[in-house]
Amino acid sequence: MPTLDFKGKRHIYAHHLTVPYRPLVPEPDKSVGDCPDDDNLIIHGDNLHALKALLPRYAGRVKCIYIDPPYNTGKEGWVYNDNANGPILKQWLADAASVDGDDLERHDKWLCMMWPRLHLLKELLSEDGVIFISIDDNEQHHLRMLMDEIFGGSNLVGTIVWKNVTDNNPTNISLQHEYIVCYAASKENLESVWQSATLPIKQRIVDIGREYVEKYEDDESRQAAFTRWFREHKSELGPISDYKFIDAQGVYAGSRSVHNPGREGHRYDVLHPRTGKPCRQPLMGYRFPPETMDRLLDDDRVIFGADESKLIEIKSYIDDYKAKLPSVVELDTRVGSNQLKSIFSTSRHVFPYPKPAALIRDLISFASNADSIVLDSFAGSGSTAQAVLSLNKQDGGNRKFILVECEDYADSITAERVRRVISGIPDAKDDDVSEGLGGSFTYCSLGDPVTASGMLDGGTLPTFSSLAAWLMHTATGRSVGPSELRPLDEHGLIYSDSRRNYYVRYKPDLDWLSSNEAVLTEARAEEIANICKEQQKDAVVFAAGKYIELDELSELNIMFGQLPFEIQRSEQV
Questions:
Q1: 179: which strand partners?
Q2: Is 157 strand, coil or helix?
Q3: Coil, strand or helix: which one is 9?
Q4: Residue 88: is its pLDDT beyond 80?
């Protein structure tokens, strides 16, 4: 498979593996609600470190990711400051970290910035998850090659063209669009879970159709009643607004799928039932043979015009409707700015080019269900959180959002927007925002890196739960979920699966860690071994030391990891 090479790639190739683990530190005074374990999250900090911090609890559990990274237009002046390994790369970044239009290496730096983040995002994505990435022409071609290499070209779902502006650029080609690139973690797993916000609307029309079929016996009165209902509710039906007819089999729309695409099709006559004359044929002929047309006629699936001059159509029943994301979306980008002004009750620009929440809501409606986790690691003004809360209010779901923002406005703009749309803004034009979307979130910052040296001198002692979650993830690749981990027995049991029990002997107390309580003694090892033997399992024990030889532990089916050197080992991957 072709790959993309760029300056710095060999230095950052495995950088995502060496990023230090930093626990999340809740800040209740900036949060909304009681900060339960499974709350929505807004994280202030470097998104590379934040993504690493999320792995122990959310790896493989995020159903939908939407990100809006820097477009690298040359006007943004963003700074690449990842502390990547390698003296050559560090010197390069020190010489020219700021990225602007005069930087001839800005594309290399953008790729260096995206590479480790995309790797961590992939680890967080569930097996049936998808990622949407907003981008424009500056990096779209590079992004596609990065995604092909990291996610696999076969997992490309598609690219949506977003027509969002009226062109005012002095170019020869009218530039009125951006792109939204979509990849699946595994395209094979996508088909059975692809959802749509139109599903509740579809079910509503199905139910109305069944009610009218039972209530009205003749076609004319049934159609008249449904037409009245349709006219009253048409504005609410969105992409299903073509389904305006009804017969004894239910609600249907007329489809022009009789055309044969691209080449000469089948030629035959279909007689109009009133005039008896052959109906006009499609330009390239019919797309199916005469026997299929005969079956459609027998099943009353053919729609005729007033006379033979109109092409026939085929009835497409609402039960068979399957929504798809459109390949082209038209939505003025100013909608996002105006919405944000309304939320902050100001006439000035609050944030440059915020994405419309409605756009993100439509994307995640297809790629999430009622209990999904949605992640945005370039959170900006917080549009994704509003989109999730709005979708939950629309369909009664319980989706959770995780936002990450590195800039100082994480509290004053990102989180503040979410606070306001949760509680409601009386003067807002949007009814949902005016009434309030409800919900809560926990605001977090990133704690100090958990390092071997910091644990040895007591400078950075993580909580039991943070350390246990990180050890579980590094040992097994599993995420343990949002709940706090606590010792389940006197030996420090934290998790058990069908094969193994996992133990962590730890307290964030340097004196305790220096005592015999923190050590795996021979007696303690035998007690653990007896417990596991009864359960037909082996054991993994993390502790500050051991008073038993490794060969004896092996005979007891116990694997030992010494703290804090297990942390150091993960730092040196």
A1: 135, 161
A2: strand
A3: helix
A4: no
For residues 142 and 135, the answer to whether their CB atoms sit within 8 Å is no
Distance CA 27, CA 442 (A): 7
CA-wise closest residue to 327 among 159, 563, 127: 159
CA distance 368 to 365: 6
pLDDT at site 573: 47
d(CA 209, CA 200): 14
- Tens digits of residue pLDDT in 145-179: 999 999 999 999 999 999 887 665 666 777 788 99
Phi-psi region of 114 (alpha: psi -120 to 50; beta: other; left: phi over 0): alpha
Residue 572 has pLDDT above 60, yes or no: no
The packing angle between helices 140-147 and 106-124, to 10°, is 40
* Structure-block tokens of residue 269: 């006559």
| Full-model pTM | 0.82
Q: How far apart are the first and last CA of the chain?
A: 26
Which pLDDT score, from 0 to 100, does residue 102 have? 61
Q: Which two tokens stand for residue 264?
A: 């000469």
Chain-centre distance for alpha carbon 212:
39
Q: Which amino acid is at 237?
A: L
Percent of the chain whose predicted confidence (pLDDT) is above 90:
60
Residues 6+ apart with CB under 8 A from 104: none
Average pLDDT over residues 115-124: 96
Helices (H), 344-484: 357-366, 383-395, 409, 416-423, 431-435, 452-457, 464-476
How many other CB atoms sit within 10 Å of the CB of residue 483?
12
Per-residue pLDDT band at 73 (split at 50, 70, 90): confident
Tokens of 287: 């797309």
Q: Taking the CA atoms of the chain, what radius of gyration do you get in angstroms?
A: 29
CA 92, 94, 99: angle at the middle one, nearest 5? 80
Q: For 437, phi and psi rounded to 5 degrees?
A: -90, -15
Element spanning 109, H or E: helix 106-124
Residues 538-561, mean pLDDT to the nearest whole number: 94
550 pLDDT band, cuts 50/70/90, is: very high
Indicate the pairing of strand 545-546 with strand 519-520.
parallel
- Asked if residue 22 lies in contact with residue 446, where contact means CB atoms within 8 angstroms, the answer is yes
Of 149, 125, 134, which Cα lies nearest the Cα of 6? 149
- CA 3 to chain CA centroid, Å, is 25
Mean pLDDT across 282-291: 90
Average pLDDT over residues 457-479: 89
* Calpha distance 90→11 (Å, rounded): 10
